[in-house]
Design a protein that fits this description.
mainly alpha
Length: 450
Amino acid sequence: MRQQLTEGNVGSQLVKLTLPMMGGIFALVAFNVADTYFVGQLGAKHLAAMSFTFPVVMTLGSLAMGLGVGASSIIARAIGEGDRRRVQRFTTNSLTLSVLAVGIFVTLGLFTIDPLFTALGADADILPLVRDYMQIWYFGMIFLVVPMVGNSAIRSAGNTTTPSLIMTIAAGINIVLDPLLILGWAGFPQLGIQGAAWATLISRATTLVASLLVLHFQERMLCLKLPSLQETLWCWKDILYVGLPAAGTSMINPISIGIITSLLASFGAESVAAFGIASRIESFFLITLTALSVSIAPFVGQNWGAKQYARVGKALRLSFLFSLSWGVAVTLILVPTASWLVTQFNTDVNVVSIATFYLWIVPISYGAAGVILIANAAFNALGKPIPSVVMTVVRTFVLYIPLAYLGGRLFEVQGVFIAASIANLVVGIGAYVWNQQTCSVRAALAAEQA
């Protein structure tokens, strides 16, 4: 736990932070794709059920991510300032806060499965499959939330290698368990879609143990002395100041996916299945940009805390340029290969056609989507979550969803996907301008003097 990001070559440090994160995120995406692949072998109905669970799983994952962002923001700045005691207090109390959040959301989730997924468009044939999956998944939520917050704390210290290793091991366990529990290979009972939930729960449990061991024994970021209630509430307040808006912002995206899934359900189960497949393939190509946005947060936090404003500005400029370049490259790759990629998951003609169109249109906006991710991460790292909330709300509720409904009326499924691309491009431009105005050296010095 030291100020290891406040000196040295900016570009090299970003690469060193991002490469391990790419491996970890790739592993997580791989096990999601593995879940989709093996559940897809059970049939289109099971695949549609899995797609219906995706927005809810992502929403609660976003809660964990938001708490992690809040913790990482204040921990990284405390490290930059050289305050070790605050680092330990914030780390410990962020974990206790995550346990409290798990209890609340698990209780709510278990009692709302049927009405929630019915509202999302699941019919009487699919709802029992959704229920089978979510009843198990909810009980394993503690293995999702606590490790995500713990790994965020580890990354705030500039260590992205260890969290990535933890994520990779967990993903490997999940991928091995999928065919055993879903399809009943090697003499295991065939549990169907329930097997996917059990595989996720077991693999996530390993991350809980590993992250706590690393925080205590390697990084020395935990305080074993029981804090007073007053100190705990004070720490929670600081964490939630960034964490609640960040969680809300993160939740908006999967909520919008739920709304879009409901809209697509009106075009048939094939549209929902195609959207689920295309989203999984898309997540592979967004790994690099996601890893960069995760890595930029501790860099910005430590350097801002150490008042190294010029390094922050340079890191953001390099990140934005890379994001745009990556978006162009991915588009050129997907145009000729999209159809073949989709057929690896499902060969239904309608599913392949719809998913292929998605992967031709939406990648045009990947560069802009990366700019949004990086800008949001930077704002949160500075302890300024409101710009991220504003940009996400505008993208989702002002542009994406209204345009999706209009596009659906005019061009059916294809219009929904065109709306996603337009929303990313418009907000990406705004995110770049706003971030540059806020994070420039001149703006930082003026704010400090004020």
